[in-house]
């Protein structure tokens, strides 16, 4: 994809508050290294008087390891098993049968 120069928001929205436009630019920054965080956005001058950063809850960013499961290569059977286990979460009797290793469950998924 060829690179294209951005059109300044001030040209697109000439009547908008310059602080709002600057905040929008920071929120929509393509490179995540330069993108504003939620905490920084709440502290932005545009929200002065609306948000109290000291009283807002904040957390450390979630570790990338929390999403390691998304990088796992799954076979068709793996996906089928994961879907079946999700179904079991909503059907306690079937879950008990599954955990007991019952061959004849009240529901059989196709192979």
TrEMBL record:
Keywords linked to the UniProt accession: ATP-binding, Nucleotide-binding
GO molecular function: ATP binding
Gene3D superfamilies recorded: Phosphorylase Kinase, domain 1, Transferase(Phosphotransferase) domain 1
InterPro entries referenced in this protein's UniProt entry, alphabetically: Kinase-like_dom_sf, MAPK
Keyword Zinc: no
PANTHER family per the UniProt record, alphabetical: MITOGEN-ACTIVATED PROTEIN KINASE (PTHR24055)
Protein name per UniProt: Protein kinase domain-containing protein
Source organism per UniProt: Punica granatum
């Amino acid at each position: 994809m060829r690179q294209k120069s951005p059109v300044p928001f001030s040209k697109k929205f000439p009547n908008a508050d310059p602080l709002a436009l600057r905040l929008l630019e920071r929120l929509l920054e393509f490179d995540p290294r330069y993108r504003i965080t939620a905490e920084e956005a709440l502290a932005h001058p545009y929200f002065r008087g609306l948000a109290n950063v000291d009283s807002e809850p904040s957390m450390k960013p979630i570790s990338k390891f929390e999403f390691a499961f998304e990088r796992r290569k799954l076979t068709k059977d793996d996906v089928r098993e994961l879907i079946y286990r999700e179904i079991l979460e909503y059907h306690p009797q079937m879950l008990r049968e599954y955990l007991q290793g019952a061959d004849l469950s009240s529901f059989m998924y196709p192979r």
